[in-house]
TrEMBL record:
Residues 5-272 form the Pyruvate carboxyltransferase domain. It holds the Pfam family HMGL-like. This is Hydroxymethylglutaryl-CoA lyase. NCBIfam families: PRK05692.1. It comes from Pseudohalocynthiibacter aestuariivivens. PROSITE patterns: PYR_CT. Keywords: Lyase, Metal-binding.
Amino acid sequence: MSEFVEIFEVGPRDGLQNEAREIPTAEKIALVDCLSRAGFQRIEVGSFVSPKWVPQMADSDAVLKDIKRVDGVSYAALAPNMRGYEGAVAAKVDEIAIFASASEGFSKSNINATISESIERFKPILKAARHIDMPVRGYVSCVTDCPFDGPTPPQKVAEVAAELFALGCYEVSLGDTIGKGTPDSIAKMLLAVLNEVPPHRLSGHYHDTGGRALDNIDVSLSMGLRVFDGAVGGLGGCPYAPGAEGNVATEAVNAHLVALGYDTGLDSDVLAEAATMARAMRTG
Ligand code: HMG
Ligand code: MG
């Protein structure tokens, strides 16, 4: 039997958060409903962040309210602080994601906090989540390069990943936010992180700005990672990271993994349908 590699779908959140057009809630719901039929175990649906900072995610509660939830799919949302956590819980998410950075420049730009201030903000979220058995995933951004601070030392990534893991994140997703990572820089970063967090608790979240995301997935596979984030249609990027373009396209990651002989559990026809839908959302 083929070995299973999971793709964590982040398109409705990371794919859409940066779109200039105000996307109607109904279109977002239709995209999530299509993705729910594709066979994902986890789908990131939205963010409970300040609508002044990311207007596109302001309707995440409405999206979560009206999607058709499929048994066995965990619907996730980002929360930067307790207010976001409470909003996400009220919207009945199945899991939360907190998001830190390995570089100070991006941390300040994205969440207006230093790395250590952000960790302090996350502590009450993890404590509250533990009380209600809510799984929390942790992101570390800028794992190889930062648009403000330049190359990120691998040891700093390891430090932040270890902190999120020790606080109770069940998985740490390693974000090449601006897609500048190469197999060499990703391998160096993973070597440091793997001293702190085991490979089955990591995910590779590689943006494809530099066209190296699939190569970066290959090197990560060779180092034991078995979860990768993708955004259907290859949309996305972070509004607070200049130069962050598309996420790696889920359908490309799926085709690549299948060609390598892995089982992803995904239906490529439904994925193609979702990718068409996502790309049309970009152009309006
Ligand atoms: P701030 O301005 O420092 O904090 O923002 P604040 O407490 O003064 O709040 C500002 C306003 O937002 C206030 O409203 C708050 O009430 C409100 P006002 O009084 O001015 O009317 N507010 C909220 N509203 C709704 N939900 C909330 C919330 N919190 C405060 N949860 C803050 C700090 C963290 C809120 C802000 O910086 C923020 O929302 N940042 C989010 C940025 C973001 O979502 N970035 C994209 C996601 S990260 C990413 O894409 C990277 C990733 O994909 C991995 C990778 O690729 O590397 C995950
Ligand atoms: Mg991202």
